[in-house]
Amino acid sequence: MAGILKVLAFAGMVGSASGMTAKAADEIIEPRRAYSATWQLAQLLAGAQDKIKHSMKVASDGQKGFIFRAQDVQHATNPSQSVRLGEKISPQALKKRFAGYEVRYTKGEDCLTCAVISGADGQFEVSFAQDGRTVVDIRSHDARSRDTHGNARGASLAKAIGSTSTQCDAGMDTTCASPDLKGLSYIVAGDDQCPVTVKEKQPTDIPACARIAGFQILAIESGATTTPESSSTVPHLPNELAAIIQEITHSCKESGLQVPAGGAPGVRKIDLNGDGSQDFLFDSHDVCSGSHGCSPRGCYLVVYKQLGPGAYRKVLDELYDVDRFISISKNKRLNLIAYLSPGEFGRCKKSRNESCDYLLFWKNGNWVWQLLQ
What we know:
By secondary structure, the chain is an alpha+beta fold. The protein contains seven helices and 23 strands.
């Protein structure tokens, strides 16, 4: 009985602190309602504990992950663990800066040099320029990443942008620019039921159902690779593409293989959308004979879209398994690409010993893939 009275006395204090009237408090501690009051108090305390646990979880989650800002990404609680667009940093310095994280460098697939930084509380990727040190791209699909406004993966794209339209780009991923965090773009979640159709050179409509799949920091001057003007008949290639071709041709010549004349082997001038722009399609198989421009699993088709005089953005980088067919009209308009994609790579989910047949064409600022059964 003494234990119950202590509980009821505490209930009276809770009632007073919460503004409960004296009459209501008296009714609660009336002896014939003792057990009822005990049950009510238990519910009250349980609710308070749930709120405390939720608050602690929110606080804990807030200490995890990386925050994407306009020009850099930094850890939520340790600002010294950060990477800024345009900074030069060696692999040793990056690993030292992110001590306690796995920093894994790779080359030759979707970038010249990339580093994946991952740990128990977050992950993001960094792409470097030709020198392997200058940061040109930072991105993350990690659920713990967010922007400075708290928008995370799965959040409403329209809400994050604060509008129903913005400038978007149909590159390797569909991305839409943040209007206030200049340099930051939201990677759009792919959803056939909620398509975001990019409009070139004008704002793209953002449906209410569109969601954020990740974040990317890519400055225009870094993402739009520029080349110097020249009176030469050699095409003014994007710097990244020129570096790739130079590396492959050097390997070919060292092996005694013939490299086609012209200065840009494997490159075709095309026009993706008929607007008169000078776009480029690169086939690594055509740089020289043999497989010097290919990996053990296949060769690469790469497309750069012209954004302006001397400015380009890579919009396609696909691995194909030996066979491909490319149709280009007389006015250089790209009609379609038919190719085999090796299994367990990219969008082909078949086994390693199988392949997927695709038809690929450019429509309304986006690539359209058709899987042939």
